[in-house]
Amino acid sequence: MDQSINAIRFTGLDMCNAAESGHPGIVLGAAPVVYRLFTEHLLATPNDAGWFNRDRFVLSAGHGTALLYPTLHFAGYDVTMEDLKQFRQLDSKTPGHPEYGETDGVEATSGPLGQGVSMAVGMAVAEANLRARFNTEDLPVVDHYIYTLVGDGDLQEGVALESLSLAGHLNLEKLVVLFDSNDVQLDGPVADAFSADLKKKFESLGFDYRRVADANDLDAVGKAIEEAKQSGSPSLIEIKSVIGFGSSVAGTSAAHGKPIGKEETEKMREAFGYTHPPFDPPKAVYQDFFDHFVKRGDAARQAWEKQLETYKQRHPERYRELMDIIEGRVRADLDKLLAPVENGTVDATRASMGKVLEAITSEVPSMIGGSADLSGSTKVKGPDGNFTRDSYEGRNLNFGVREHAMGAITNGLVLHGMRAFSGGFLIFSDYMKPAIRLAALQGIPSMFLFTHDSIAVGEDGPTHEPVEQLTIYRATPNTDVLRPANASEVHHALRYALEQTDRPTIISLTRQKVTQLREVHYEDFQQGAYVVSDKDNFEGILIASGSEVETAIRAQEILEERHDVKVRVVSMPSMELFERQPQAVREAILPPEKQKRLAVELGSPDSWYRYARDVHAVRQFGKSGKGDEILKDFGFTPEAVAERYLRVEDRPQR
Fold first, then answer.
1. How far apart are CA 312 and CA 322, in angstroms?
2. Predicted TM-score (pTM) of this structure
3. Domain assignment of residue 592, given as a range
4. pLDDT digits (tens, 9 = 90+) for 6-23
5. Domain termination site, one of 515, 545, 577
6. Domain check: are 184 and 162 in the same one?
7. Would you name the residues annotated as active-site residues?
8. How many CB atoms lie within 10 A of CB 188?
9. What distance in Å separates the CA atoms of residue 289 and residue 75, rounded to the nearest whole number?
């Protein structure tokens, strides 16, 4: 045991020394905790790292990769010694913070503190929901724990407390939070910034709280984890450790984020009785992990596979649904579920989304989601009733006023295999930006549904009226932003989001009503832009998204009737989809020779200049007043758009 723990410690130190960067303090302090978790409790296997019923371990204290990577290496995951030597180097499989999809055995991309533990909460929600829906009394085919290692910084972040508050409220009994409590953070003692009584705080949140006085006491650590698992409540185990244990800077912030150095590391080797040279651990460590981690995990997986085969024979329909979730299939015929929308239909796109969700979610077993205390306004709700501590079967999540947590929990649900969605006002997506960014970075298909997407919100005023948000998300890599113009485009937007596997989708929806003026085919919508209304021998183009498409079409009519000017109108629900089209498709929609163009959108103009030199947009915060009066005041009427187009210069292509 001691040899294995020291192998983790010194391999981690060697990694930091070789990289000349990293965080050795957590390696020295928390190695016994992670060792005991892996070799006594965690049920997973490197021989099938994606085994569905495995326990999940999320390193929320994401700076501790020099602790995680050696552990994964010794545990048999595809993390080689050469990978460890390339720690923090360009294009290595061992980046500075854990990256989902880049390193075998990493369950979530973490590092922004509070996000990892919040994703762990999402995983625990998924486990509880699937356990309630699919288990039978004698066949518990969904039955596993979610473990997460947090530090002081995690528990100071607002997003973590939002998520843990919800976890306690929902009594997510399979969630075990291991708190590496070392009383030190980067700027000095934790006491300089934090003095809450964690026992009282977490017990008041509904958590089982336990304390281990010394992280090096393996028996006490193991006992606390076992008792937490049996507590019937989500658990927090505060484990007192010494940051940089055994080093000359032990117990100080100097141990946090700077390598110990080769000279001192050698002295520590001697002091710890660990005589093995850098990156040359004893073979017995591998055998230890094989005997106490791999064998247990393989046995558990094999038993589960036999159980699942019995389940298949006894409950074929439920088995098929469960396997669809496990394998990420959406079997529903979305074309059949989504009836065509008649032209002339008038509805807010948020209302259209509510109807689409109601039609689809009951037919897609993996869908789960809800809103941040706004479902009456967003119309975004999950099916089958509310997910509560007394009824885990429900798939509507009442997130409460917890937008920070909602985004991260949605990501955790998706990482667990669910097709999760969240609902809120676009302005409050500001609170969710870190989670949206992590969804994009992880390449996972989280769905973020936002309503009240412009200054047309009206009386609530500029605090509730988004301006810059669409531009921010369009600038985020690996993210698709969809702003549907009518009910038909809403259908296509949700269908598109459900078809994604490697990127999140943001769908931006109106509070105000819009009219469906033209039939929209999915093939056109998928292009990201299409000609929604055309004229022979048109001289220029109006490009718009969302509610402004109707405004542009009516401006087109005014231009022809009053000024004998013919223009094409292009609906552009997604710049990202449009940019991925072949050049011939893009040029057929926006011919290069037609440079007299005006883009129209109720938001910041910045992202539109790649398509038009002139943009009719919002360059200031909104106002409080009736929505239609605000639109008129800002010049977003058909008449004002037509007049604005007439002022556009017909400049030649560069």
1. 10
2. 0.96
3. 526-646
4. 999 999 999 999 999 999
5. 515
6. yes
7. 403
8. 11
9. 5
